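Researcher: I'd like a structural prediction for the single chain below. Treat it as a standalone chain; there are no partners to consider.
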Amino acid sequence: MSRIGKKPVAIPSGVTANIDNGSLSVKGPKGTLSLGLSDLVTYQLEDGSISVQPANDSKSARSHWGMQRTLVSNLVEGVTQGFTKVLEIKGVGYRAAAQGKTLKLQLGYSHDVDIAVPEGIEIKTPDNTTVEISGIDKQKVGQIAAEIRRWRKPEPYKGKGIKYRGEFIFRKEGKKK
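Model: Treating it as a single chain, here is the predicted structure.
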């Protein structure tokens, strides 16, 4: 039994959900998101909540159950609050600047790295070493954050690079004299 799947997803006021043609669409104050529904799981809209149940007792249906409930929960949370990831840049001369629909990174390469911001994602740089990525789709926010981080992952000796806020970097000692 899925502990996560058992809990229904509460729909707050101001949010509407609709199931039709094999997709669930959720509309809220921040926008509209939709999810393709799995045949292994049944979805029911009931008085202010969405419940997710496995369609049969097979192992694959039970394994999809909790994941599909989490995806539905992410839709509701995205259209009400949105998602944010914060990246921190550490290193001499490393900096970031948001310029319209592009993010310009200076990461010690011979050239600047320009990253195009996809539709539905907002990138802000409160200072030179902080990048805030926000949007309503959790998958898109996480994907663009991972693509930015991939340009200069934190190294284990001095910790230079791009890391998530709150991420712990295991540091190595270095040479002994």
